[in-house]
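Rotation project, supervised by the postdoc (A.L.). Task for the rotation student: set up a whole-complex structure prediction and record inputs and outputs verbatim in this book. Inputs entered:
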Amino acid sequence: MLDAMMTALSHFAQPTHLIYLLLGVGMGMVVGILPGLGGIVGLSLLLPFIYGMDQISALAMLIGLVAVIPTSDTFTSVLMGIPGSSASQATVLDGFPLAKKGQGARALGAAFSASLVGGLVGAVILTGFVVIARPLILAFGSAELFMLAVLGLSMVGVLAGKSLPKGVVAAGLGLLLGGLGAAPATGELRMSFDSVYLMDGLPLVIVGLGMFAFPEIIDLCRQNRSISDNGTLGLGWRDGVRDMIRHKWLCLRCAGLGSIVGALPGLGGSVVDWIAYGHVVQTAKDKSQFGKGDIRGVLAPESANNAKEGGGLVPTLLFGIPGSGSMAVFLGGMVLIGLEAGPAMVGRDLDITYTIIWSLAIANVVGAGGALLISPFVSRLTTIKYGYLAPFMITVICFAAFQATRSLSDMVALLVLGVVGVLMKRFGWPRPAFLIGFVLAANTETYLYQALQFYNWEFLTRPGVLIIAALTIISILLGMRKHPENPVEEEESSHSHNPKRWPQIVFAGGLLAFFAFGIWDATQHTFLGSVFTGSVSVVMFVASAILIWQLVRSPASHPANFDHEYDLDHQDVKPTAGLWHYVLWVAGLVAATALFGFLIAITGFFIAFLRVKAKASWLRTLLLTGLAVVGLCVLAWSLVLDFPAGLLQDLIKLPWPLG
Amino acid sequence: MSWRKNLNLSFKSACAAAAIAFGFVGTATAQDADFEGERVELIIPFGEGGGTDTWGRFWAPYFSVFLPGNPTVVVKNIPGGGSTSGANQFQARAEADGLTAIGTSGSTQFPYLLRDKRVQYEMRDWRVVLASPTGGVVYVNSDLGLKSAADMKALEGVKLRYGSQGATSLDLVPLLAFELLQLDVDAVFGMKGRGAGRLAFERGEVNIDYQTSSAFINNVTPLVDIGNAVPLFSWGALDDDGNIVRDPSFPDLPSFPEAYEMMKGEKPSGPAWEAYKAFFIAGFPAQKMIFLPKDTPEEIVKAYRDAAQSATEDESFVTDRKATLGEYKQIVGEPAERIFRQAVNVPEDAREWVQKWLTDKYSVQF
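Outputs recorded:
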């Protein structure tokens, strides 16, 4: 082992290695900042370059890229409220409110220093862990993984906010939507209306964008000011670093959590940030600020998601089983340079493994440093008038969305989920609980089915399962500790208790109808194919019925009663437009795309929006529109991507990029 | 190796790659099969990462080097519908000018053969350029007491468990093989790839499994060495006459037909066997293929086949191949055409047999 470490160290004495590492880091910064372009896209852009490179340099470049993406994707999560990747959705919850308070620079400082700690701690843990990881990974069978999914679901309790039934129903909605498409046990297609798009299940990226980014964009458009509410930046990034030092134990805990959860194949990297976020809310004494801009809500997921990448390397290298999408591409890269994953990575090739792990550490230091350096400039974006920013943001989320399957359906899915997100936000439904349910749906169902096949119900008595079950109970009890206030979602005030309750009741009724549809759909399939979605639907049907009864019968002060619109009506500064105004703008964009294709539609959208909403001069309008269109084309060209086509493209053949 | 030389080498390749990635499209003059200044798109109907994507990215630069005019060759991922979306798009939109090709895998062939309703492509019409074979080895847990395929009779009546990705995936081949051998195999679905199946094997959750050749060599051989796993047979390879023979990567292991004979005392036959053979060919000896669209002019098809042929004779290809494609010889041109015909021409009764069997046993709806 020491020999291997020495050999690995000697690799770092070579300037080439470091140069390629830096190249990877630079690429990762650029790709990471653009939402939707996560590690997968970045790595596949790099793959053509690694031909003929020696193994060590190629690995360094790939690792440099993988390592910084969870760092650099924080920019949009914090500053714009757009989750930079599925692994940084939880960062949005507190990061974005901080930016809105004018503390964007502080939040970024905290996030990057937490990322740094996470990455370094992850590398240290891995150095020792990698040689003993095999038995541990093998100890986590389907039964244990199912129990871990249950542990994750128990976080719903703390993320539910004031009304537990709402949290439960939101999570149930996530579970049901996550179960859309092929059943793991039989391959039957559930709730898919014969649509090929729905057969594959909803893409997580789009769900994240619809739930968090879309409603925020709509809100900001309506308020029509800069993101930062006083137009200033306030505290600097140094304060953020100080926050990190103050909460160093939290960061260390979350980093450890991140690297272990990341190392378990099958759980998936996108759960890590939510588990870390749930953990910090659970253990915090004062929970009143979560969701409104508590710096701990930024530190926890950020330290965990950087550590996760290191953890994800373990199953990738040892078993050839990628822990996440970017790890799958990394594995492809390894094959292309002639390295095969397997037990040899901790035997004959241990020095390469150490080179990879330590490259990860170095890349984290460089990445976090670089991100900190540019953060004061980038955070100025939050002081720009939103009318100018909005069309860019909408372009960005559309572009991120159609990375999923590169079709118009992605934009339609974004719009539909976005409308659900807007309504959930308006009526105070906890969107984090929904996301937890969605992210864990496939794991819960698959591993339960497999555990039952392998062990029958006796799987419940396996020691690993019992330990995780005990942890789950502790976690629930911790979450139930008396807390005067726990509004993870939106700020609550007595104003929100709208006496006019029918809009809320209609929305809850819509959910009730959806669960009824889930029950009906379950009767159309075999037992194994429908037992999961069926049971979720039945339970949720009852829960949402209870909720509707509460909404109809209880006094106005009941915690279930919440209407953000009513709240807005009682504030001094009224929004400039109704709730649906800007949703219709986006719907118009989607409709225009269906007719003329994305590029023409977005050009028109830009011009119209800048002229009508931002009241920009023609010169400025054309300049900004040109900038956006050229940027889009360059990106699409280098990613080998066609824009979603419309009716026009079906009728006439147009040259790229129009056709 | 000094780092300077190293850097120089890498720099050159980086430039070449940059040229590949950021080349420019000129006007199409495909009639004389000269691709100078063109950008050729190789559609991979899967997302980035994973076997077929890696394979496509391995081939792309070789086409760039060996096609006349050295076009830029880029990989275009179109994921969705278990690879049917990308194939549908290729069928609907690709022009027969040699600027669009597609790289398919068994998961593209199987839905076509099974007449999946998502399939809107007619593979039979496409022009095949090359076929990349792969193989696989079936192995069992040593607790079952077997030493080799010769002991397979001992498996009669023994409850076996197999971790599978789904009955209509590539796992159709092993499931059909188990059916032919009349093994009592309980398939547990929902595995996310063959790697997950192997992990379940290592945990003792399943006791029979197969891995493709390179995964077997890297990840199962150590288990065989410490006495936890026993290899039984390989799927085998196709010889030039279309017979299933021993896999050159595993000359000591019997092929599946051999193993069948060892266990049953006769050669395999009947509609189940015909069905097995068709899906086996589409799944292994012709697992990954590169196609040009229907009606592509003969000289363009020839240019592609020649390029593939030159690539397979190239020195760096031969050394690189081992890591990415395994020991298998790439099949180009006429032989590829032959094997492709064999893979898509499933006898009607064999197809019906498989569909009925899938419906009866795994409640797959067609």
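Student's summary: Residues 350-378 of chain A form the longest helix (29 residues).
Supervisor addendum: The radius of gyration of chain A is 24 Å.
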